[in-house]
Amino acid sequence: MRYNKIEENIGDIEPVVEIVPYNTGYNVSLHRDMQNRELIFEYPTVYLIYDKLGSGRSSNDPKFKVYVGETNDISRRTRQHLKDTGKSRMDWKALNESHNSQMIVIGDYYFNKSLTLDIENKLMMYLLSAESVTQLNNRRSNPQRKYFMSDQFENVFEGVWQTLRKKKPEIFPEKSEIENSAVFKASPFHSLNAEQHESKNEIFGKIESALKESSTERGKTIFIAGQAGTGKTVLLSNLFYDLTNSSLVRKDSVYLLVNHDQQKNSL
User: Fold this and answer.
1) What is the C-alpha to C-alpha distance for residues 164 and 13, in angstroms, rounded to an integer?
2) pLDDT digits (tens, 9 = 90+) for 134-163
3) What's the pTM?
4) How many CA atoms does the CB half-sphere of 179 hold within 13 Å?
5) Which residues are in the GIY-YIG domain (predicted)?
């Protein structure tokens, strides 16, 4: 079965963005705006939890730590964050104990599970490259493949970013400013094409096999060949990110050589 593409200009439909204090009173704050209640509480949503860092709280150039997530139930997910996660992770402990933490909840009529995962992923990719964000507290990358509405993803994301920028320009700069940075170009959160996915899986398999072999064996080298602009850097950063977050190796035993100082911040 094939779905017809949606022809309307989705980018003209502004998403709902609510900003509330991140504390046990979040539910009351979100319920105050009854007009947007359906999109916030009955549709999948994307959310961000953020706090200003250190001296940046009184600075003209504030710095932030940010968490990006998506959920089918914002009330339940926020309760989980407030009650459970802070007990086991220091980054959540800091967000939970701060009196200044805020939560942004994004709702959109066009959101579905796959689309919110892609929005979450792209927000992480952009915020990782934003100068105002010095700490991004996410642990995963969830790029999606084809799904209903995937052809409209860029239009939906454009609407989300521009609405966020209207609300919090100190966190969300112009997209062009981010897209021109070396950090953005090397981000591990870029979606891979089919060829890159195949190469990544093959390389990951070879690394896994090599690590299971005798520790006395000499190291192995894997070469990735390709002309400029074929996606080698994105493939490498994506592979490195997944490897450092896998159970195969310790984080401090994996190294990546970079050819630009700015890229150090992306990984």
Assistant:
1) 14
2) 888 876 666 666 777 778 888 999 999 999
3) 0.73
4) 4
5) 42-143
Q: Which domain holds residue 70?
A: 10-180
Stronger pLDDT, 101 or 230, i.e. the higher one: 101
Q: Are residues 221 and 253 in the same domain?
A: yes
**Which candidate, 126, 138, 133, places its Cα nearest to that of 67?**
138
Residue 145 and residue 50 in one domain = yes
66 and 171 Cβ atoms separated by less than 8 Å: yes
- Tokens 């602009």, located at residue: 229
* Domain final residue, candidates 154, 180, 206: 180
Task: Round to whole Å and give the CA distance between 204 and 69.
Answer: 26
* Partner residues linked to 67 by β-bridges: 49
Please give the radius of gyration of the chain, using alpha carbons only, rounded to the nearest integer. 20
163 and 53 in a single domain? The answer is yes
